Amino acid sequence: MALxxxxxxxxxxxxxxGAHGIQVLNSTATLNTKETFTSKIVIDFGKTFExxxxxxxxxxxxxxxxxxxxxxxxxxCTVILSNPVDLIYISGGNVYLKNVTIxxxxxxxxxxLFQADSGSLYIEGxxxxxxxxxxxxxxxxxxxxxxNISITDSIRISDSNNVTLINSAINFLYQPxxxxxxxxxxxxxxxSVKDAKIINNTINIPVEALEFYSAFLEALCLNIAENVVVKxxxxxxxxxxxxxxxxxxxxxxxxxxxxxxxxxxxxxQIDQDSENITIINNTISMFxxxxxxxxxxxxxxxxxxxxxxDTAIKIEPINWxxxxxxxxxxNKFINSxxxxxxxxxxxxxxxxxxxxEIVIMDSKNITLKMCTLKNSTVYLEKYSENITIIxxxxxxxxxxxxxxIEENVKNVFVDNNTIIEIEDSSGETVERExxxxxxxxxxxxxxELPFFVKIVSIAVIVAIALLLVGLKIRKGS
Length: 477
Hints:
46-stranded mixed sheet, 57% strand, mainly beta
């Protein structure tokens, strides 16, 4: 039989016991109160459990500590768990937490911080260490601010609207198991969520976890999500640092995304079913593929800086034979290659490329224009056709080819590029600029013939012709 509480008290130390839990009608405590509970606290519909400036000790082993059907309010409170239990379960109730610290006294990982199948959750200031995570379903108007938590699994938010995660630190506690198998792990997952903001957070994953999980470790997953802003975050060491699955209307802006080690499979990935994704003003470094695009529909990659990745950007629309609506403009790609595979109709405009290779393979109607290339080489490969390279400024070492074309590539147009030769990789320039004009030709190996070679070849042919004419004249005389 549960103990029923309907009290208001101040400056007291209270211990409450019940055989099957404490059933709260209305309970309020303020002003430096200490309480100990030995059974879980059930807050019924229409009832309120409110504490402020209180230290609450929970000595039971029963989960969860709070079962909320009514209203739970904790302000400036510390909750001490003697056993590894779940903290709060919400079913149709409302939870308000402000400046709450959770202390787990058990040696191992405690249970879930939050579980919900309906209701609302508002948090402004919350600290907890060594918990499993949270699983929130059908929670609308979810507001999570100033969290500082360390978890061993995931924060999953599903079938919810109006979600905000802001100004928080989320840390992944990697706990390797000897001989453990690799399975998909998502630190933060938004699934079937509409209207969400992930802003100004720090998300940290140990590099050891990245090495173990590689691409199976997703720092931020947007799964069937719509109208989501991911802005001003710092995310470290995700396998898939951000990944979208069948997502719509996503803005990824002004984030710092980095890894401490180059691990195969690490990337920012846009899957084939996502659309209207804007990736703008981000700094991305040390990933296998900085930005990987499998979608063809309304993808914008603009004003990003990507450096020290194996590949800066890969464009490879899957299961699509039409024109890809992908814009790549105003980016800086440094020490990181650029790959365009099996793509139709993409323009790379006004980008800066340095110390890398641009590989266009089995693609059509690709344009490279108004870009700066420095110590970079463009490769046109494997049945590509209708490739236009115009209005670029190209810095190339003396004697080095900046454009290589395979034999089976068709219709390459290179025009109005400014070629600036430099002495060596130190960047010392030679005062010689050569604007190229007209359609380039290819030799039998698929390489374009340098202009001066063409002139010399023509001169030799003319000389031979004149010599033959002279011999005929002499024989005739």
